Structures are given as structure tokens and as C-alpha cells.
Amino acid sequence: MHAIKRYLSATLAILLLVFAVSAFAEGEDPMAKYDEMITITTCRSIGDTVQTYIDKKDDVLTDNIWFNSYRDELGINVEYVWTAPSAQYEEKMNAQIAANDLPDFMNVNASQLKQLVDYGMAYDMTEIFEQYATPFTMEMMEADMNVALDQATFDGRLMALPQVAGNRDGANFWWIRFDWLENLGLEEPKTLDELVAVMYAFAQNDPDGNGENDTFGMGINKELFGSLGLGALCDGLGAYPDGWIEGESGIEYGSIQPEVKEALALVSQLYADGVLDREFIVKDSTKVNEDIIAGRIGLFSGQHAQAFYPLQDSVVADPEADWRAISIVSDDGSTPKTMIGGSAGSYYVVNVDCEHPEAVMKLYNYFYMKDPALSPDFDMHYHGRLDADPNSEITEWYQWAAINSAYPMQNLFIHRGVESYFEDGDESMKENYWVADNISGNENYLAGDITYWSTYAWSGAGDYSGEGRIDYYDLNGMFIQNAYTGANTDSMVLYNATLEQLRLDTFTRIITGDASIDEFDNYVEQWKALGGDMITQEVNEAA
């Protein structure tokens, strides 16, 4: 695996811009239609929703607004040589790679991308991107400081087109019930000490006023990390157990750092004092969400999307529930940072034998033309329900595109538009479909329709919405980039499962008091001996 080195990243970005500008200066149109129809092949996974539509109209995969436009506007006929249910797609792709039986382009994960590059099966897209990427596509790539392009770059060469997602949306923050704070005469916590005091109060001082001892200080699930885990708490202590950090001797694994030991000691004390649910070790995220909706939890580490679930359900169940997103807090007064990963969730790889690799770039450009909120050519017909067919059951047309990707700042863009409208009265914000849609949802909630609370809590003006909190982080330098966002190394493939189970078992035993905090030191040594040192070496070689 080769992750692009930082100086190569900067150089690549400059070169791409120079080549793009020079190409357009010569009057070339990167989206020019082919004189004669060409055909390129691909494959795709089929989710349950898509399969439902296929069962009703078997040719919908290639007879839809996207594929018809490819033919009519670009002169490109796209054909699927195979499809597979989503659960089987990765296995099917692995088999096709092993057999060297590949279509012209395909969607793959990071490990498969590495294989294709190592085997010489991936087309080098560097010059294709330089010549055919439109200015708007370039703008989309630069929105995340080229992180997605970096992930698709090997030894300075762009070997795939990244399927981009918004990495900022993975930021951790605290969702907290302000009505509980008010009931207890507490202020929004600004320091770790204040946050811990809130946890104790939520667990011990009857914040819901029902006279029962039925609330917990903080929601936590049995997996410890990810959704409803310890992310926001760890971030505040400068601990990043799920990522890689820049250390004195190179890139180091976050889970074995002393800051994680400090976080575990705190959580263990919370558990011992009855602040946490004693049954968390058997509760997955589904069960914790049920506790949130039932009013047993008023504080948890989360992300932006929890405004829609479970918090919308919580507010419907109890309209007095005043959930707001607040920042992670540190223990020393410094500005804490939350870790964000790579922007690319998967990759579009072009077969080295593809006759028209530029056609794949055109399809990539075309999606960015028609779908992202910021695009001057955005067309709702390509994203959602067709106005001409209001009874159509297909409401998410973007899923039918042969290539799709995202504007990594789209959700933040929507929030900022909503904020400009409500705080500055900027009516021009309604000219953008997605901003207008969220303005409408916010207005509906403010007019008393509680079913729109989630829109208000997700995109609403100010810092207390999910995207508002991410905006606050963005403006105040509160992100830290995971130092390694590449594919699994060879040793990761061999040892990750064992090491992750070791971490879960050890951390759980420390938290519940079945092991002392000093067991963390044994964990570090075991992690290194059971493959961790080999993984660390490979990560540093790759980076």
C-alpha cells in the first residue's frame, strides 16, 4: 500500500491545476460528446431498495435518467457485465480480480485498489484527470484539501477516482439535554471537570424529575468506540484509540498511547461510581438508542446524523427534550481536536486495458455536474423524484448513476446557507435546492411542527445543531487528520481481528473493574508482540 507523501500531494494538486487550466485555455471541452457511440462496461452492487425496483422494472438499471443522459449527451453507452447483492459484492470482486476478469471500470475498496495497483491492473489516471477533470470537479476535490485524491494516489500517480464522502461529518461531539441541565441548575459544560460533574448529576440527581433513580450519566455501547462510544471523551483528552497519530518516532497507533490509559481510568471511575449503565457490556447501539428515546440517557458522544435517529424519536416521545450539540472539552484549557479520517470511502478503478479511460472521467464529471448542491448545473431530476412522474416509487435517482461521489463539504454548505438566511435574511440562499429544502424544514419546526425537529437540529442556524457544531470546529481548527487513511497493510489483514478483540476485552475489563488500570501497560506490550509492531512498520513505510 502506498499513501501519497505530503509533498507529492501538494505537487500533484499544483500539476493537476496547471494541466487543467492549460487544457481549457486551448479550448478543449472535457465533456464533448463522442462522434460515434462508444460502449464501456462496469459492474455494481445491488442493495435491497434497488432490488425492489428492479423486480418491478427489470431494465431500470440501464433505462433511467442517468444512463439515458450518458447516451444522449455524452455518447457513452454503459453496460453492466455483472451485478451482485451488496452483501456478496466484495467477495465477487475479489474473485474477478483473482481471475483477471474485469470490466472497463469498477468500484472497489481500499484493499482491492491496492491489489489492482500492485498487480498492474489499474489504469494510471494522472494524465486523464489532468486533461478531462472539469473546473467544478477540481473544486470538489480541493474542498477536502485533496485528501480523497491522496488516498487514490500511489507514488505520486493517481490510480483511481475516489468516491468521496464528507470526512468532517465523522467528527465527534456531545449531544446533551439542555432541559436536564436547566432542571438541575447547571450550565453548559466548558471543561472536562464540568462535563464529569454533569455526568454525575445526570446519574444521581433525578434530572427528569420523576422521582426515580432511572437515568445514566452518559450513554455507552458495548463496542466502546464508533457510534455511542467513547469518542468525544477520548478526543477531549487528546486520545485517539481508533486512529493513527504523528509521534516523535513516526506514525504511531493511537490506542496504545498514555492518553488512552488516562481516558480508561476516568471511565472506570465513572462505572465504579454508578454513573454508567451497569449493563452497557451487553448493549449494542440499538439498545442504547432505545434508552435515549425512553429518556434514560441525556448525554452521549455522537455525530451529526443522530439528529434524525434516535433524537427525533426522543423529541416526539418527550417534546420537552431539548437536545443540543456541544463541543468536546479538554482537561487543561487547551483547544481539543476530534480526529477525522479519509474522504474516500471507495474508489472507481479503470481497467488498464480499457480503450476509453477518459470516458470514465466524463462520467465522474457528469455526476458532479448534476447532483451536488453547489453545482450550477444541479438538477433535482437526477437526484430525487421526477416531477414528470410524481407517482414514481423511485425517489433516489442518484443511486442509479454508474458513478456517484459527493461534495465533501455539502452538509456544511447547507448549514451555512440556512444560517445566512435566518441570521442575515439572505433570500438568495433559497436559490439552492438543498438549502431551500432545509430552510423550509427549519421554518416548519419553528412554526410548531415537531416532525421537522431533526432538520432544525441537523442544519439549523447557530452552533447547537449537528452541522453547526461541525462548522464551529471547522472555523476554530478543531480537526486532526488521521495520519494513515490507506488500505489495510499485509499485517493488518493477518492480525487486526486478534488485536481488536484484545483491545475490546482489555478495555472492557479495565472499565468494569475486572482488571486494574495497570493492565493497560500489559495490553500495549501484547499489542506490539501480536503483530502491532509489524503493522506500525508497514504503515510508516507506506506513508
Please characterize this protein's 3D structure.
- Among the domains are: 219 residues, 3-Layer(aba) Sandwich (D-Maltodextrin-Binding Protein, domain 2); 44 residues, no CATH class.
- The longest helix is centred in the last third of the chain and has 24 residues.
- The chain has 22 helices and 14 strands.
- Strands 3-13-6 form a 3-stranded antiparallel sheet, with helices on both faces. A 3-stranded antiparallel sheet has the order 10-7-11.
- The protein is α+β, with helices and mostly antiparallel strands and 543 residues long.
- Helix 12 packs parallel to helix 21 and helix 17 packs across helix 18.
- Helix content is 46%, strand content 12%.
- InterPro entries: Bact_solute-bd_prot1, SBP.
- Keywords: Cell membrane, Lipoprotein, Membrane, Palmitate, Signal.
- This is Extracellular solute-binding protein.
Strand ordering within the main sheet: 3-13-6
- Percent range for helical residues? 40-55%
What count of helical segments does DSSP give?
22
The top-level CATH class of the domain at 6-166 and 343-400 is Alpha Beta
β-strand amount: 5-15%
- Total number of strands: 14
Signal peptide: 1-25
Protein name: Extracellular solute-binding protein
Keywords: Cell membrane, Lipoprotein, Membrane, Palmitate, Signal
List the keywords:
543 residues, alpha+beta, D-Maltodextrin-Binding Protein, domain 2, 3-stranded antiparallel sheet, 22 helices, globular, disordered N terminus, signal, SBP
Write the layout of secondary structure elements.
Blueprint: H1 6-25, E1 38-46, H2 48-56, H3 65-74, E2 76-85, H4 86-98, E3 105-108, H5 110-118, H6 126-132, H7 135-142, H8 147-151, E4 153-154, E5 157-158, E6 161-164, E7 173-177, H9 178-183, H10 192-204, H11 231-236, E8 244-247, E9 250-253, H12 258-272, H13 285-293, E10 299-302, H14 311-317, E11 323-326, E12 338-340, E13 344-350, H15 357-370, H16 380-383, H17 410-424, H18 433-446, H19 453-459, H20 466-475, E14 479-481, H21 490-512, H22 519-542
Parallel strand pairs: 1-2, 12-14
Antiparallel strand pairs: 3-13, 4-5, 6-13, 7-10, 7-11, 8-9
Helix pairs in contact: 1-6, 12-21, 17-18, 17-20, 18-19, 21-22
